[in-house]
Protein backbone atom coordinates (compact mmCIF):
# COMPACT_ATOMS: atom_id res chain seq x y z
CA UNK A 1 0.00 0.00 0.00
CA UNK A 2 1.21 3.46 -0.77
CA UNK A 3 2.83 5.31 2.10
CA UNK A 4 2.40 8.64 0.39
CA UNK A 5 1.29 10.38 -2.77
CA UNK A 6 2.59 12.82 -5.34
CA UNK A 7 0.74 15.80 -6.69
CA UNK A 8 1.57 17.14 -10.13
CA UNK A 9 0.77 20.56 -11.58
CA UNK A 10 1.04 19.55 -15.22
CA UNK A 11 0.73 23.06 -16.65
CA UNK A 12 3.83 24.21 -14.78
CA UNK A 13 5.96 21.30 -15.99
CA UNK A 14 8.72 21.73 -18.59
CA UNK A 15 9.32 18.05 -19.12
CA UNK A 16 12.95 17.89 -17.95
CA UNK A 17 12.44 14.36 -16.60
CA UNK A 18 14.41 14.82 -13.35
CA UNK A 19 11.54 13.47 -11.21
CA UNK A 20 11.05 10.40 -13.42
CA UNK A 21 14.77 9.59 -13.46
CA UNK A 22 15.54 10.12 -9.79
CA UNK A 23 12.38 8.77 -8.10
CA UNK A 24 13.82 6.08 -5.80
CA UNK A 25 10.81 3.78 -6.18
CA UNK A 26 10.07 4.51 -9.88
CA UNK A 27 6.56 5.80 -9.35
CA UNK A 28 6.52 8.24 -12.25
CA UNK A 29 6.67 8.07 -16.04
CA UNK A 30 6.62 10.76 -18.71
CA UNK A 31 3.22 11.07 -20.32
CA UNK A 32 2.80 10.97 -24.08
CA UNK A 33 0.25 13.78 -23.80
CA UNK A 34 1.23 17.43 -24.04
CA UNK A 35 0.49 20.23 -21.63
CA UNK A 36 -0.49 23.70 -22.86
CA UNK A 37 3.13 24.73 -23.44
CA UNK A 38 3.89 21.60 -25.44
CA UNK A 39 5.88 19.66 -22.85
CA UNK A 40 5.29 16.08 -21.72
CA UNK A 41 4.47 16.18 -18.01
CA UNK A 42 4.96 13.12 -15.79
CA UNK A 43 2.12 10.98 -14.53
CA UNK A 44 1.84 8.54 -11.64
CA UNK A 45 2.24 5.10 -13.19
CA UNK A 46 2.68 3.03 -10.01
CA UNK A 47 0.96 4.90 -7.22
CA UNK A 48 1.13 2.06 -4.71
CA UNK A 49 4.95 2.22 -4.69
CA UNK A 50 5.07 5.87 -3.58
CA UNK A 51 6.71 6.44 -0.23
CA UNK A 52 5.95 10.17 -0.19
CA UNK A 53 9.64 11.00 0.23
CA UNK A 54 9.31 14.29 -1.71
CA UNK A 55 12.58 13.76 -3.58
CA UNK A 56 10.64 14.58 -6.79
CA UNK A 57 9.67 17.87 -5.16
CA UNK A 58 13.29 18.63 -4.34
CA UNK A 59 14.48 17.89 -7.87
CA UNK A 60 11.70 19.65 -9.78
CA UNK A 61 13.13 22.96 -11.04
CA UNK A 62 9.64 24.19 -11.91
CA UNK A 63 7.92 23.57 -8.54
CA UNK A 64 5.42 21.43 -10.47
CA UNK A 65 5.48 18.26 -8.37
CA UNK A 66 5.84 17.26 -4.75
CA UNK A 67 5.34 14.21 -2.60
CA UNK A 68 3.76 13.88 0.79
CA UNK A 69 3.72 11.04 3.28
CA UNK A 70 0.46 9.84 4.80
CA UNK A 71 0.28 9.97 8.58
CA UNK A 72 1.63 6.76 10.12
CA UNK A 73 -1.09 4.15 10.53
CA UNK A 74 -3.59 6.01 8.37
CA UNK A 75 -5.09 4.86 5.11
CA UNK A 76 -6.38 7.26 2.57
CA UNK A 77 -9.60 7.79 0.68
CA UNK A 78 -9.26 8.40 -3.03
CA UNK B 1 4.62 17.01 6.92
CA UNK B 2 2.63 15.27 9.60
CA UNK B 3 4.09 12.06 10.92
CA UNK B 4 1.79 11.73 13.91
CA UNK B 5 0.99 8.13 14.80
CA UNK B 6 -2.70 7.37 14.28
CA UNK B 7 -4.96 4.47 15.04
CA UNK B 8 -4.50 1.76 12.41
CA UNK B 9 -7.16 2.00 9.78
CA UNK B 10 -7.96 5.66 10.44
CA UNK B 11 -9.30 7.23 7.29
CA UNK B 12 -7.25 10.18 6.12
CA UNK B 13 -8.74 12.40 3.45
CA UNK B 14 -6.17 13.29 0.85
CA UNK B 15 -5.49 16.82 1.99
CA UNK B 16 -5.62 19.89 -0.16
CA UNK B 17 -1.88 19.71 -0.17
CA UNK B 18 0.35 22.44 -1.49
CA UNK B 19 3.97 22.34 -2.47
CA UNK B 20 5.95 23.10 0.72
CA UNK B 21 8.12 25.52 -1.26
CA UNK B 22 5.21 27.72 -2.34
CA UNK B 23 5.18 29.98 0.76
CA UNK B 24 8.76 30.97 -0.10
CA UNK B 25 7.95 31.94 -3.68
CA UNK B 26 6.10 34.77 -5.33
CA UNK B 27 3.69 32.40 -7.03
CA UNK B 28 2.26 35.09 -9.31
CA UNK B 29 5.63 35.11 -11.11
CA UNK B 30 5.70 31.33 -11.64
CA UNK B 31 6.28 29.75 -14.19
CA UNK B 32 9.77 31.16 -14.20
CA UNK B 33 11.97 31.92 -17.19
CA UNK B 34 14.56 29.17 -16.65
CA UNK B 35 14.99 26.67 -19.48
CA UNK B 36 13.79 23.06 -19.32
CA UNK B 37 16.60 21.06 -17.70
CA UNK B 38 18.16 24.05 -15.95
CA UNK B 39 19.07 23.33 -12.34
CA UNK B 40 18.51 26.75 -10.77
CA UNK B 41 14.95 25.85 -9.71
CA UNK B 42 16.33 22.78 -7.95
CA UNK B 43 18.73 24.97 -5.97
CA UNK B 44 15.80 27.22 -5.02
CA UNK B 45 13.97 24.14 -3.67
CA UNK B 46 17.00 23.32 -1.53
CA UNK B 47 17.29 26.93 -0.39
CA UNK B 48 13.62 27.08 0.67
CA UNK B 49 14.00 23.88 2.67
CA UNK B 50 17.26 25.15 4.18
CA UNK B 51 15.43 28.28 5.33
CA UNK B 52 12.80 26.09 6.98
CA UNK B 53 15.48 23.90 8.61
CA UNK B 54 17.52 26.84 9.85
CA UNK B 55 14.44 28.18 11.62
CA UNK B 56 15.16 31.78 10.69
CA UNK B 57 12.60 34.54 10.85
CA UNK B 58 12.02 35.16 7.15
CA UNK B 59 11.33 38.83 7.85
CA UNK B 60 15.01 39.08 8.78
CA UNK B 61 16.39 37.34 5.71
CA UNK B 62 17.33 39.34 2.63
CA UNK B 63 18.36 37.91 -0.72
CA UNK B 64 20.65 39.96 -2.95
CA UNK B 65 21.48 38.86 -6.45
CA UNK B 66 23.25 40.23 -9.45
CA UNK B 67 22.53 39.90 -13.13
CA UNK B 68 22.12 36.56 -14.80
CA UNK B 69 19.83 33.58 -14.81
CA UNK B 70 20.60 32.85 -11.16
CA UNK B 71 20.12 36.53 -10.42
CA UNK B 72 16.44 36.04 -11.18
CA UNK B 73 16.12 34.19 -7.88
CA UNK B 74 15.80 37.52 -6.06
CA UNK B 75 12.63 38.18 -8.03
CA UNK B 76 11.08 34.80 -7.34
CA UNK B 77 11.65 34.35 -3.61
CA UNK B 78 9.04 35.76 -1.27
CA UNK B 79 11.61 37.51 0.92
CA UNK B 80 13.05 40.99 1.01
CA UNK B 81 15.25 40.93 -2.02
CA UNK B 82 17.31 43.17 -4.20
CA UNK B 83 18.35 42.66 -7.82
CA UNK B 84 21.56 44.61 -8.28
CA UNK B 85 23.79 45.60 -11.17
CA UNK B 86 26.09 43.08 -12.83
CA UNK B 87 28.76 41.71 -10.53
CA UNK B 88 27.87 44.05 -7.67
CA UNK B 89 25.69 41.81 -5.55
CA UNK B 90 28.34 41.51 -2.82
CA UNK B 91 28.95 45.28 -2.46
CA UNK B 92 25.20 45.80 -2.02
CA UNK B 93 25.05 42.90 0.42
CA UNK B 94 28.00 44.36 2.36
CA UNK B 95 26.20 47.67 2.73
CA UNK B 96 22.98 45.93 3.72
CA UNK B 97 24.70 43.84 6.36
CA UNK B 98 26.60 46.78 7.85
CA UNK B 99 23.56 49.03 7.88
CA UNK B 100 21.37 46.35 9.42
CA UNK B 101 23.56 43.75 11.15
CA UNK B 102 20.61 41.71 12.44
CA UNK B 103 19.68 40.68 8.90
CA UNK B 104 20.77 37.36 7.46
CA UNK B 105 22.05 38.45 4.08
CA UNK B 106 22.16 35.84 1.34
CA UNK B 107 23.84 36.55 -1.97
CA UNK B 108 22.34 34.26 -4.60
CA UNK B 109 23.98 34.60 -7.95
CA UNK B 110 25.83 32.89 -10.73
CA UNK B 111 29.48 32.23 -11.48
CA UNK B 112 29.65 34.87 -14.21
CA UNK B 113 28.26 37.51 -11.90
CA UNK B 114 30.06 36.58 -8.67
CA UNK B 115 33.38 35.21 -9.84
CA UNK B 116 34.01 36.78 -13.24
CA UNK B 117 32.56 40.29 -13.29
CA UNK B 118 32.45 40.66 -9.50
CA UNK B 119 35.46 38.52 -8.63
CA UNK B 120 37.22 41.29 -6.76
CA UNK B 121 34.24 41.87 -4.47
CA UNK B 122 34.04 38.15 -3.74
CA UNK B 123 37.69 38.03 -2.70
CA UNK B 124 37.45 41.05 -0.43
CA UNK B 125 34.22 40.00 1.27
CA UNK B 126 35.94 36.67 2.04
CA UNK B 127 39.08 38.49 3.24
CA UNK B 128 37.02 40.58 5.66
CA UNK B 129 35.05 37.51 6.77
CA UNK B 130 31.87 39.52 6.53
CA UNK B 131 28.88 37.56 7.78
CA UNK B 132 27.12 37.01 4.45
CA UNK B 133 26.11 33.76 2.83
CA UNK B 134 27.05 33.39 -0.80
CA UNK B 135 25.32 30.79 -2.97
CA UNK B 136 27.02 30.56 -6.34
CA UNK B 137 25.14 28.63 -8.99
CA UNK B 138 27.97 27.61 -11.28
CA UNK B 139 26.85 26.69 -14.78
CA UNK B 140 30.38 27.21 -16.16
CA UNK B 141 29.39 29.96 -18.58
CA UNK B 142 27.78 33.42 -18.81
CA UNK B 143 24.32 32.06 -19.49
CA UNK B 144 21.83 34.90 -19.73
CA UNK B 145 24.00 37.07 -21.93
CA UNK B 146 24.38 34.36 -24.56
CA UNK B 147 26.91 31.78 -23.39
CA UNK B 148 30.20 33.67 -23.43
CA UNK B 149 33.38 32.33 -21.82
CA UNK B 150 33.51 33.05 -18.08
CA UNK B 151 36.41 32.75 -15.64
CA UNK B 152 35.00 29.39 -14.55
CA UNK B 153 34.65 27.87 -18.03
CA UNK B 154 36.70 24.64 -18.25
CA UNK B 155 39.57 24.48 -20.72
CA UNK B 156 38.67 23.42 -24.29
CA UNK B 157 34.95 24.13 -23.93
CA UNK B 158 33.18 25.68 -26.88
CA UNK B 159 31.30 28.86 -26.04
CA UNK B 160 29.84 31.81 -27.95
CA UNK B 161 33.14 33.68 -27.70
CA UNK B 162 35.42 30.68 -28.17
CA UNK B 163 34.21 28.69 -31.20
CA UNK B 164 37.57 26.81 -31.27
CA UNK B 165 37.48 26.07 -27.55
CA UNK B 166 38.77 28.00 -24.57
CA UNK B 167 42.46 27.89 -23.73
CA UNK B 168 42.49 30.10 -20.64
CA UNK B 169 43.11 28.37 -17.32
CA UNK B 170 40.01 28.01 -15.16
CA UNK B 171 39.34 29.71 -11.85
CA UNK B 172 38.87 27.22 -9.01
CA UNK B 173 36.45 28.97 -6.68
CA UNK B 174 36.92 26.92 -3.46
CA UNK B 175 40.70 27.34 -3.70
CA UNK B 176 40.40 31.06 -4.40
CA UNK B 177 38.08 31.59 -1.45
CA UNK B 178 40.09 29.50 0.96
CA UNK B 179 43.13 31.58 0.10
CA UNK B 180 41.07 34.75 0.56
CA UNK B 181 39.90 33.60 3.98
CA UNK B 182 36.33 32.31 3.69
CA UNK B 183 35.28 30.30 6.75
CA UNK B 184 32.72 27.93 5.22
CA UNK B 185 33.23 26.45 1.75
CA UNK B 186 31.19 23.63 0.25
CA UNK B 187 30.50 22.44 -3.26
CA UNK B 188 27.64 20.25 -4.44
CA UNK B 189 25.80 19.72 -7.68
CA UNK B 190 22.10 19.93 -8.44
CA UNK B 191 22.04 16.12 -8.29
CA UNK B 192 22.97 16.19 -4.56
CA UNK B 193 19.78 17.83 -3.33
CA UNK B 194 19.81 16.48 0.23
CA UNK B 195 23.46 17.32 0.75
CA UNK B 196 22.92 20.75 -0.78
CA UNK B 197 19.99 21.41 1.55
CA UNK B 198 22.20 20.49 4.50
CA UNK B 199 25.10 22.63 3.27
CA UNK B 200 22.79 25.63 2.78
CA UNK B 201 21.35 25.11 6.27
CA UNK B 202 24.86 25.02 7.73
CA UNK B 203 25.86 28.09 5.75
CA UNK B 204 22.80 29.99 7.00
CA UNK B 205 23.73 29.14 10.59
CA UNK B 206 27.47 29.77 10.17
CA UNK B 207 28.91 33.00 11.49
CA UNK B 208 31.23 34.48 8.91
CA UNK B 209 31.66 34.37 5.17
CA UNK B 210 30.00 31.19 3.87
CA UNK B 211 30.31 30.04 0.29
CA UNK B 212 28.27 27.25 -1.28
CA UNK B 213 29.06 26.46 -4.90
CA UNK B 214 26.39 24.53 -6.78
CA UNK B 215 27.18 23.04 -10.16
CA UNK B 216 24.13 23.31 -12.38
CA UNK B 217 23.46 22.27 -15.96
CA UNK B 218 23.03 24.92 -18.64
CA UNK B 219 21.50 22.76 -21.36
CA UNK B 220 20.85 25.65 -23.71
CA UNK B 221 24.24 27.33 -23.80
CA UNK B 222 26.91 25.07 -22.33
CA UNK B 223 25.79 21.46 -22.72
CA UNK B 224 24.35 21.95 -26.20
CA UNK B 225 27.42 23.72 -27.63
CA UNK B 226 29.71 21.09 -26.09
CA UNK B 227 27.58 18.12 -27.17
CA UNK B 228 27.05 17.02 -23.58
CA UNK B 229 23.37 16.21 -23.93
CA UNK B 230 20.47 17.85 -22.13
CA UNK B 231 19.85 18.72 -18.49
CA UNK B 232 18.95 15.18 -17.55
CA UNK B 233 22.12 13.77 -19.17
CA UNK B 234 24.15 16.28 -17.14
CA UNK B 235 22.39 15.24 -13.93
CA UNK B 236 23.30 11.62 -14.69
CA UNK B 237 26.87 12.75 -15.36
CA UNK B 238 26.94 14.45 -11.95
CA UNK B 239 25.62 11.26 -10.38
CA UNK B 240 28.30 9.10 -11.96
CA UNK B 241 31.28 11.45 -11.82
CA UNK B 242 30.99 13.10 -8.43
CA UNK B 243 33.41 12.14 -5.70
CA UNK B 244 32.45 13.18 -2.20
CA UNK B 245 35.55 14.23 -0.30
CA UNK B 246 34.80 16.18 2.84
CA UNK B 247 37.75 18.22 3.97
CA UNK B 248 39.57 17.71 0.68
CA UNK B 249 42.41 20.08 -0.10
CA UNK B 250 40.82 22.81 -2.20
CA UNK B 251 43.86 22.68 -4.50
CA UNK B 252 42.53 19.33 -5.75
CA UNK B 253 39.03 20.54 -6.53
CA UNK B 254 39.59 22.07 -9.96
CA UNK B 255 36.90 21.50 -12.57
CA UNK B 256 37.50 20.08 -16.01
CA UNK B 257 35.11 19.72 -18.90
CA UNK B 258 34.38 16.02 -18.59
CA UNK B 259 36.47 14.94 -15.61
CA UNK B 260 35.40 13.95 -12.13
CA UNK B 261 33.88 16.55 -9.86
CA UNK B 262 35.09 16.74 -6.28
CA UNK B 263 32.16 17.66 -4.04
CA UNK B 264 31.83 18.02 -0.30
CA UNK B 265 32.39 20.37 2.56
CA UNK B 266 35.93 21.59 2.16
CA UNK B 267 36.48 24.27 4.78
CA UNK B 268 34.79 25.00 8.11
CA UNK B 269 36.72 27.19 10.48
CA UNK B 270 36.28 29.95 12.98
CA UNK B 271 37.76 33.38 12.42
CA UNK B 272 36.93 36.81 13.73
CA UNK B 273 33.96 38.25 11.87
CA UNK B 274 34.18 41.75 10.35
CA UNK B 275 31.89 43.64 12.75
CA UNK B 276 33.38 41.80 15.75
CA UNK B 277 36.86 42.72 14.55
CA UNK B 278 35.87 46.34 14.13
CA UNK B 279 34.38 46.45 17.64
CA UNK B 280 37.47 44.85 19.17
CA UNK B 281 39.87 47.11 17.31
CA UNK B 282 38.15 50.39 18.19
CA UNK B 283 37.57 49.33 21.79
CA UNK B 284 41.34 48.74 22.09
CA UNK B 285 42.35 51.92 20.35
CA UNK B 286 39.79 54.37 21.69
CA UNK B 287 40.15 53.13 25.23
CA UNK B 288 36.37 52.98 25.75
CA UNK B 289 33.67 50.47 24.79
CA UNK B 290 32.82 50.84 21.15
CA UNK B 291 29.53 49.74 19.71
CA UNK B 292 29.08 49.56 15.97
CA UNK B 293 25.99 51.56 15.04
CA UNK B 294 24.79 53.03 11.83
CA UNK B 295 23.66 56.61 12.18
CA UNK B 296 20.24 57.09 10.66
CA UNK B 297 18.87 60.51 9.95
Protein described:
The complex is a heterodimer of chains A (78) and B (297). Chain A has helices at residues 18-22, 55-59; strands spanning 4-8, 28-30, 42-44, 65-69, 74-77. Chain A is an alpha+beta fold. Chain A has a single domain (4-66), classed as Alpha-Beta Plaits (2-Layer Sandwich), CATH 3.30.70. Chain A is elongated. Chain A starts with a strand and ends with a strand. The model of chain A has no long low-confidence stretch (mean pLDDT 90). Chain B has one domain (26-286): Rossmann fold (3-Layer(aba) Sandwich). Helix content of chain B is 33%, strand content 17%. Chain B contains 10 helices and 9 strands. Chain B has an 8-stranded mixed beta sheet, sandwiched between helices. The radius of gyration of chain B is 20 Å and the shape is globular. The chains are: A alpha+beta (78), B alpha/beta (297).
Descriptive labels:
heterodimer; A: 78 residues; alpha+beta; Alpha-Beta Plaits; two-stranded antiparallel sheet; 13% helix; B: 297 residues; alpha/beta; Rossmann fold; eight-stranded mixed sheet; 10 helices; 9 strands; disordered N terminus
Oligomer: heterodimer
In the predicted model, the low-confidence regions of chain B spanning at least 5 consecutive residues are 1-13
Binned strand content of chain B: 15-25%
Note the total helix count of chain B. Answer: 10
CATH topology of chain A: Alpha-Beta Plaits
According to DSSP, the number of beta strands of chain A is: 5
Per DSSP, what share of the residues of chain A sits in E-state strands of 2 or more residues?
25-35%
Number of discrete domains of chain A: 1
- The second-level CATH architecture of chain A is 2-Layer Sandwich
Shape of chain A: elongated
Number of strands of chain B: 9
- In terms of structural class, how would the helical and strand content of chain A be classed? alpha+beta
Q: How would a crystallographer describe the biggest sheet of chain B?
A: 8 strands, mixed
Radius of gyration of chain B: 20 Å
Biggest sheet of chain A, strands in spatial order? 1-4
CATH topology of chain B, anyone?
Answer: Rossmann fold
Amino acid sequence: MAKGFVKIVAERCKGCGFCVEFCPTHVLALSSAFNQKGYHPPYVSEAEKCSGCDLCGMYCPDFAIFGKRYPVGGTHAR
Amino acid sequence: MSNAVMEPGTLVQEPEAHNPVEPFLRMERIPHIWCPGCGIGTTVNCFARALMNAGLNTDKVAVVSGIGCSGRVAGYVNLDSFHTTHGRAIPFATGLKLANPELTVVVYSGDGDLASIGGNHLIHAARRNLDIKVICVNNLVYAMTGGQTAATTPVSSTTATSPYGTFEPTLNLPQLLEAAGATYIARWTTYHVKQLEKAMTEALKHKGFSFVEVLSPCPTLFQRRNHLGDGLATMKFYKEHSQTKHGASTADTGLTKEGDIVVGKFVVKEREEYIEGMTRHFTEHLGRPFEFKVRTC
